[in-house]
Design a protein that fits this description.
Blueprint (H helix, E strand, L loop, with lengths): L9 H17 L8 H24 L2 H27 L8 H20 L11 H27 L1
């Protein structure tokens, strides 16, 4: 599936949901007295979705990869902070770490896919280039269908 807006990306949606839950956690009264920890985790978790959005909007595969790795780093930082928070007696958490791990896995898979792509990015696509890409994909799908028919009747 091809996404036209970063808001439609499942990984961005997951990152936003994680941020909402982290902010709900840091708003609890028992978080009082952990001001610097609160600020750090809030900055880290917001950085995940923001870097996904910025990379998506940049329009080149190398820039997308850069921001995906920055986002993944922020996800790792968030997980690390959640590990600390979970060990503090006053601040037990639920499924936030597993959500952050899921986001990291999604970002890694996307980065791997983009890294192995020959597409340089939206910024470089002309109408002619888009047509050529579409035609090549349709040709590959057609040849695959022919192979499947040949194998069945064969």
């Amino acid at each position: 599936m091809k996404y036209k807006r970063f808001e439609d990306l499942p990984v961005w949606q997951d990152a936003i949901e994680l941020a909402v839950r982290v902010f709900a956690l840091t708003a609890r009264p028992n978080f009082k007295g952990y001001g610097s920890l609160k600020d750090q985790i809030e900055r880290a978790v917001v950085s995940i979705s923001n870097n996904i959005a910025e990379g998506f909007e940049r329009g080149t595969t190398p820039e997308l990869l850069t921001f995906l790795y920055i986002s993944r780093g922020s996800s790792g930082e968030t997980r690390s902070l959640l590990c600390l928070i979970d060990r503090l007696p006053a601040l037990r958490i639920s499924d936030l770490r597993s959500r952050a791990e899921s986001i990291s896995r999604q970002l890694r898979a996307w980065a791997d896919s983009a890294q192995n792509s020959e597409i340089r990015g939206q910024r470089y696509l002309t109408d002619k280039g888009r047509r050529a890409t579409t035609e090549a994909r349709e040709r590959e799908e057609f040849l695959k269908e022919l192979e499947e028919i040949k194998a069945r009747h064969g």
